[in-house]
Amino acid sequence: MPAPLPGPALGLLELESLARGVVVADALVKRAAVTIAVAEAVTPGKYLLIFTGPVGEVAESCEAGLAVGGAMVLDSLHLPHIAEAVVAALLHGQWAKVGADDAVGIVELHTVAATLRAADVALKCANVKLTHLQLAKGIGGKGWFTLAGVQHDVEAALEGAAAAVQAPLLVTTELISRPHAELRGKIL
Questions:
Q1: Fewest CB within a 10 Å sphere: which of 5, 51, 115, 175?
Q2: Strand pairing report for 35-42 and 46-53
Q3: What's the order of all strands across the beta sheet hosting 170-176?
């Protein structure tokens, strides 16, 4: 499979203060030309900021956000050249459908940063499509995503996702060889 073309960068800041989160959001968009994909309160009482744009702009905004957030920043992430499918899911809620012959991989992680890192690696290491991505809200701050494709590619993507994060951050990976039509239509 040919190497994917470099995508945009992605930045993430998770803060323990909702109020400071809004101030940080203002600071990072004032610092550089980035697009905010997520700026919201999430369980349990944290503020999550995810933004995207050119590599240099995202790096500048991360720097500004870390400076303004100070000790209230709980977690941060800067991923240059993130997989385009992750950005499409975050900005537009776009993801692929699971086909009748597809295998499905499910990856569940303890943090949003780990989820985004694992999804990026999974999409880059195998010919799979992102079919779902959920971050923090309503799931206790965790994250999970699903992938679909030919089974050996999904297996490779699951291995890549698991290897991309520290072991304590990974809850589980699961594989469904050919999901039933009822599952594909209602859950996946």
A1: 5
A2: antiparallel
A3: 129-135, 143-149, 103-109, 170-176
CATH class label, 9-79 = alpha beta
Which residue ranges make up each domain of the chain? 9-79, 92-186
In order along its 188 residues, the chain shows pLDDT tens digits of 444 445 799 999 999 999 999 999 999 999 999 999 999 999 889 999 999 999 999 999 999 999 999 999 999 999 999 999 999 999 999 889 999 999 999 999 999 999 999 999 999 999 999 999 999 988 999 999 999 999 999 999 999 999 999 999 999 999 999 999 888 877 77
Whole-number Å distance between alpha carbons of 24 and 154 = 37
CB-CB neighbours of 38 under 10 Å = 17
- The CA distance from 121 to 8, in Å, is 14
For the domain covering 92-186, report its CATH number.
3.30.70.1710
Task: Please indicate whether the domains covering 9-79 and 92-186 agree at the CATH topology level.
Answer: yes
- pTM higher than 0.85: yes
